[in-house]
Structures are given as structure tokens and as C-alpha cells.
Amino acid sequence: MKIGVCVKQVPAKDAPLAISEGGAWIRESDIGFETNEPDSYALEEALRLKEKHGGEVVAISMGPDRVKQTIKEALAKGAERGIHVVDNEFYKLDPLSSARSLAAAVEKEKFDLILTGLQSEDQGFGQTGVLLAELLGLPHATIIMQIEVTDPRMKLKRELEAGWFQWVELPLPAVLSIQSGINKPRYATLKGIMAAKKKEIASVPRASLGVPDTLTQKVQKIYVPTKSKKTEFLTGSAKEVAAKLVEKLRFEARVL
After folding, report:
1. Is 226 inside a domain boundary?
2. Is residue 242, in this structure, part of any structural domain at all?
3. Is the pLDDT assigned to residue 154 strictly greater than 90?
4. What stretch of H or E contains 33?
5. Which of 78, 171, 232, 237 has CA atoms 20 to 30 A from the CA of 139?
């Protein structure tokens, strides 16, 4: 099987975020970055499928030069090669533009299967996998908890709400969004880290893909929520106080 895995680089969980001037994004020079955790489960599932059915795993990521580190980590864990869609301002893209870029970059690869994490930890749209499948004209399923491949079809276990699960069948090729917790991601071995240095990472400038920059949505501003406290004493008789309290809960707190 030829499997592509989308791995995104996101700000580290413990990074002290600072907003850039204008509020369009964060100051990247002040923080560290790491692999998006949901994508780690997609990568692990791809590696397990390769070990069971043979083939190769290709790690795909988009962003500036620092994104190569995330691709190298995937190569160290067992992926055979990487594709880096180079774009220094990828954070300005909406999910559709991101999916269009990835689709254009991988279309010629003719993957049997493309895996993504359920969502990213920075923007959290959870749309890239679905849009990527539509753009490539491939069937798609989300929240995958188990994959059983019987070429040319797959039997998939999906997690629903309230503890329910659903089994579905899809033909290959396809795109799947993997649920976090489906497996236990492996660590890179020293041998894998050394081997990753010799593996290919193909750089593809996003500008060369011919993808339009038309956005369907745009982030106007990001900011840190301000915390505020307010104490108000209600006076009057018990009946008057109760009436005032109900009014505030209904019209100010909006919990009634």
C-alpha cells in the first residue's frame, strides 16, 4: 500500500504565546513547535498498515522551513520519504485553500490511502481531511477507530456519540480522518533517526501549484481572553431579591 499522511506542525503545548502586532498571528520567534498530536495517531496507523500489508508511507506537511523537522520526525519513526509544501504564510489560509494546496501537491502520487488527524491543535477546524477527499474525488470517513484492509476495500470502525460505534465499508483509494487514541504512537529509535538523514524530502513551493489564494473565510484577529470579576449585592426583601436574581440569570448570564 502507498499511504500518505498529513502531519501538521503546531505551537508547543507549553509555549507562552504572544500575539504579533496587528493580531493576525502569534510571534513565532518566541516559541517552539511540535507535531500536531492527532496527526501522530494517523502516522502510527499508517506505519502499522505498511508493516502488515507492505508498501510505503509518505509524510506530507505544509509551512515554512521549520516544518521539515516535523517531517524528519515522521521519517525517523518509519516513513520512507516526505513532501514539504513550502509556504511562509500558510497560517493565513482557510481550510479549503489548505486542502486545495495539499491536493495539488499529492495528486500525482496516486496514494492508495491518505490519513489525517481528526483536527489540528492550533486552529482546530477539523475540515482538511473531508475537503481533501472531495477535491481528489475520493471516498472519505471520519473518526476512525479501526481499519481492516481487504484489498480493494476496507472495513472501518467509526466512533459515534454516547459510546456508540459504527462499521462502514469503503473502497480504495480513500481518505480517512483518524481518531486520537486509536493506537499508541511509537517513539523514534536511534537507528531510525540516523536513517532519516538519508531519506528524501521533496520541497514543493505552494506558489508553483497554481492554487488560487481566494479565501472563503479569514481570521480578523486573535487575542487572549481577558479575565474579569464583578461582585454585585442585591438588596431588598427576599421576594425582591429573588426577582432581581432571576432577571439577571435570564438576561445577563443567559442561563435560564
Report:
1. no
2. no
3. yes
4. strand 33-35
5. 78
